[in-house]
Amino acid sequence: MRDVKLVATDLDGTFLRNDRTISKANLRALERLGERNIIRVAATGRNLKKVKDVLNTDIPFDYIVFSSGAGVYNWQKQEHIYSQNIVADSARKLLNFFVDQQLNFHAFYPVPDNHKHFYFRGAELCEEFERYFEFNKAHATELEEHTLPSGELCQFLVILQENEERFRNLKAAIEALCPEIRVIRASSPLTKGYIWLEIFHRSVSKGNGVLEICRRNGIHADQTLGVGNDYNDFDLLETTRHSFLTDNSPDKIKHRYPLVPSNEQDAFAVSVKPLLE
């Protein structure tokens, strides 16, 4: 690991504790990485507004890969440097498809305003959809079936009760409808028993966001380390040379990468410790 020049970490369930606070050990590890001129990246599914809800501007990250890679933000300069939205034609196809299927979904404005979104209540009552709506209703507008948005969108979020077959079938249908679209699976951070389908442009991923930062700083992918805790971190961990999962990851995926302690036990600090010895 002596050649590592960039470290990337997921936030929720990885860098942050369950109460969304930062441990002293993790904060000190960030500071020490900076002292060694190692670039520090938070790679998260949160939009930028939600990142700022949990990170003060003095937390010493260098970059934020937000909305699973739809945007990249220079944290030190507080400026956007990259974005990738879903083009208008594909956004329209997806809106029509989800409405026709009467699914519960959210459709998000293009980066950097993607904390704002449209919401649509489908045919099935979904408690998880309502919980998400309650958390985000200040920035939500109800979708009118007959006056659908016509421009680009950042992403879609479809919420399902956990059902592997339904998830696979829906994922295949969405990706067949728009070949430039990809579907990312995430476990609900709110309630067990639900699957979140996050739909982005195919080039959007945490890994590609990290590679964009590497390109801008003359860093090779072999000089990177990543740590995460869920399915939606695979894009990151498949990109970084040295990759780790936290012990609080779903049991089904723990075999994929070396394990570090849970997010409650300084997972980030433990994963980067060899860089600081």
Would you mind describing this structure in some detail?
With 277 residues, the protein is of the alpha/beta class. The chain has 2 domains: 6-83 and 204-276, Rossmann fold (3-Layer(aba) Sandwich); 88-201, 2-Layer Sandwich (Hypothetical Protein, Haloacid Dehalogenase-like Hydrolase, Chain: A, domain 2). Helices cover 31% and strands 24% of the residues. The protein contains 9 helices and 14 strands. It has helices at 11-15, 24-35, 48-54, 88-100, 127-136, 164-177, 206-217, 234-237, 267-276; strands spanning 6-9, 39-43, 63-66, 71-74, 79-83, 105-108, 117-120, 140-142, 155-161, 181-187, 194-201, 224-228, 242-246, 259-260. An 8-stranded mixed sheet has the order 5-4-3-2-1-12-13-14. α2 (24-35) packs parallel to α9. The longest helix has 14 residues, at 164-177. The radius of gyration is 18 Å and the shape is globular. 45% of the residues are buried. The model has no long low-confidence stretch (mean pLDDT 94).
